């Protein structure tokens, strides 16, 4: 093991550049998957005839597929259908679809947790279904959804490492590059990568615990 060589300024900069790509993918995927998951979860909660069943079927299919398979599909299959994406966007779209399906279940569970009595009272006071959903159900449900959502986002950040298989220059990809330069760099590089993942995920886990404590 060569810690001095592995932690030289150029190598550390190279690893941090990879981690920046990891963060960029994670942030975009979090935003897009939250929007997608909220829409899908709300559609399932609304129990719209036919549409809700179609959405439920799509969500169940995506949730039961390996994330790696979805990323492969975006990067390898779609170009054969005329839709070509870079490794970056193939990863973002794959993560968005997979995590969006997961988040939709969190959203649906949060909406279902709101007391039906409040909904009936809102409707009897003259509010429409959409007004009740917007002003009564969603604000309460969102507070209850925050802890599991943060936990899901932590999983999403870790799942970005799967993009190494399609050569996205994220953190684990750059670790492999350093390994190619010298086998003595691999363990120090992995320790450095583990520390970066741990720091970010630990901060998110602390946030999740504090938010959960506030909702109890």
UniProtKB/TrEMBL annotation:
Keywords: Amino-acid transport, Cell membrane, Membrane, Transmembrane, Transmembrane helix, Transport. GO terms for molecular function: transmembrane transporter activity. This is Glutamine ABC transporter permease. The lineage of its organism: Bacteria, Bacillati, Bacillota, Bacilli, Bacillales. It is found in: Cell membrane. Its main location: membrane. GO terms for biological process: amino acid transport. It comes from Paenibacillus rhizosphaerae. Signal peptide: none annotated. PANTHER family: INNER MEMBRANE AMINO-ACID ABC TRANSPORTER PERMEASE PROTEIN YHDY, MEMBRANE COMPONENT OF AMINO ACID ABC TRANSPORTER. Residues 19-208 form the ABC transmembrane type-1 domain. The keyword Phosphoprotein does not apply.
């Amino acid at each position: 093991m060569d810690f001095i060589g592995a932690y030289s300024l150029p190598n550390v900069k190279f690893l941090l550049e990879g981690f920046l790509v990891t963060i960029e993918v994670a942030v975009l995927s979090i935003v897009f998957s939250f929007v997608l998951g909220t829409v899908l979860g709300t559609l399932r909660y609304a129990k719209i005839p036919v549409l809700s069943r179609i959405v439920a079927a799509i969500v169940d299919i995506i949730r039961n597929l390996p994330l790696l398979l979805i990323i492969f599909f975006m990067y390898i299959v779609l170009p054969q259908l005329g839709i070509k994406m870079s490794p970056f966007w193939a990863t973002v779209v794959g993560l968005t679809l997979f995590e969006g399906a997961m988040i939709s279940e969190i959203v649906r569970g949060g909406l279902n947790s709101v007391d039906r009595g409040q909904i009936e009272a809102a409707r009897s006071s003259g509010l429409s279904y959409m007004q009740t959903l917007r002003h009564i159900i969603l604000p309460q449900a969102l507070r209850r959804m925050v802890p599991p959502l943060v936990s899901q986002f932590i999983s999403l950040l870790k799942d970005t490492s799967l993009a190494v298989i399609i050569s996205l220059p994220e953190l684990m990809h750059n670790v492999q590059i350093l390994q190619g330069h010298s086998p003595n760099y691999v363990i120090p590089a992995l320790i450095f990568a583990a520390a970066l993942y741990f720091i970010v995920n630990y901060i998110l886990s602390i946030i999740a615990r504090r938010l959960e404590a506030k909702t109890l």
